[in-house]
Amino acid sequence: MNKTIKSGVRELLFRMISKFEEKQQEKDVEFKQKQDCLRVVLNFLGNLKDVAGVDEIVKTIENLSNLEQKDRIRTQNQYLDDIASITGKKRPHKPTVSDLDSFDIDAIRNKINEFYIVRKQVPTLRTLLVELRESIGFNGCRETLRRLLLSNGYEFKKNKNERSLLIERYDISAWRHRFLRTMALKRREGKSIIYLDETYIHKNYKPKKSWQGPSTSGAIENVSIGKRYIIVHAGSEKGPVPNSLLVFSSKSKMADYHHDMNAVNFNKWLREKLIPNLNEPSVIVMDNASYHSIIVNKAPTSQNRKDDIREWLTLNNIPFEDYHTKAELLCFVKRNTPEPVYEADELLKENGHEVLRLPPYHCDLNAIELIWSLAKRKVASKNLGLAAAEFERIIKDSFESITSEEWKKMTDHVIHVENKYKERDRITENNLESFIINVGNSDSSDSYESFQIEVLDSDFDYGSE
User: Where are the domains of the chain?
Assistant: First the structure.
């Protein structure tokens, strides 16, 4: 019994058949040429009837010609029969899954959510299939379930990290909106955008893969990561800021390299390496690392002594009474805390520059992050058995080898990322009004923002006792 072949296979067979037909046409031409040759031979032999044995030769040739003709016709007929069996009408088949309505689809979604939210488990096709067979009588196989999930918008892909959730927090999202608007405005004003940051690299940093062979071991990865080197640099679309590269070895064994970079070192780098080499007023883009964010006008906290809090209130012309408790004084501080003024920002501002701080968790908006990746690849490709002094030289050479065109490429990529954020957040460049977050009053008595204390002199008039 002939079986119906699926459309994809049938299409492949049709292509094979077309090739077969081309071959048949070639054979037809060849067969015709043979017939013409035989006809010429037979005509020649017909003129030699008086020669003994000619009649037998003629009969033999005619028999061979007839046999070849019959075999050719039989092959073509078999070929046509095969085509008829292959291209037969597709027969209906019984579906593997009964028709699912919207209720069943919702039940599948709810079951998946139940795994994540209630059971705190990651569902698999195997576990989900067992549950669906019990709950909605699903009678398909795993492959059917997989296709069903794909058709309803599910994907089996790499998990999102926490960053993708944090960047959508309302305050960080608002920060991003302000940042994107300001960047667009500064670019229209023709301001030079300078990106700066810090990173690190270990002495034994090597590529993860290398060409190896029977007699070549390739780059051997060291057991120890080696000494850590801290790198500070800055640049723009025009290239690196001249003489701004700083490389020094770490003295700390802490896992976090930020312990090697403090406010003193960072401000010294600003004064000696960055500011003297900026030829025009620029916008400095930096993140919010602790040593970038030393507050000059820091308000007192509960860790301060009561006298320190009183002194701060006096310096800021905020009235208070001697009988106010420390808790009350801190309430006054909270109500009157000014916007933070950062030491690094003031240093740059004094020299005609302004600082634009990146939103938290948005390193993809800093072009120098791409420069780190490029430079580290260059270092890794040359780091084979280098001494400490040579390794530091290789680091500097790798950064110096990065061309202005490569810097421009990295900054263009960041602009592309900015545009993607704008498109997603529906921000237009024409809307340059400041983004204001209005914190509404909460009905909940537990809300910290809405919890205010009205201090009455009569409540704490201890002096009258």
Answer: 7-86, 102-151, 167-210+220-298+340-425
User: Which residue, among 233, 172, 178, has the nearest Cα to 369 in the 3D structure?
Assistant: 233
Tokens coding 151: 């058709």
What fold, for 167-210+220-298+340-425? Answer: Nucleotidyltransferase; domain 5 (3.30.420)
56 Cβ neighbours under 8 A, 6+ residues apart:
none
Pair 333, 304: CB distance under 8 Å: no
Is residue 454 predicted with pLDDT exceeding 50?
Answer: no
Sequential DSSP letters for 259-323? GT--HHHHHHHIIIIIGGG--S-EEEEE---GGG--BSSPPP-TTS-HHHHHHHHHHTT----TT
Q: For residue range 198-257, list pLDDT tens digits in order.
A: 999 988 887 777 777 777 766 666 656 778 899 999 999 999 999 999 998 887 665 555
Instruction: List the beta bridge partners of residue 194.
Output: 284
Tokens 């120098």 -> residue: 368
Tell me the per-residue pLDDT of 145-166, one tens digit each, with 9 for 90 and over. Answer: 898 899 888 888 888 777 777 8
Q: Residue type for 101, please?
A: D
- Residue-wise pLDDT tens digits, 13-58: 667 777 667 777 777 777 676 666 766 666 666 666 665 656 666 6
Measured in Å, how far apart are the chain's first and last C-alpha atoms?
A: 112
CB 291 within 8 A of CB 262: yes
Q: What is the pTM of this model?
A: 0.59
Which phi and psi (to 5°) does residue 95 adopt? -65, 145
Fill in the DSSP letter of residue 250. Answer: -
Closest CA to 384 of 181, 205, 119, 182: 205
**Is-contact 183 195, C-beta < 8 A?**
no
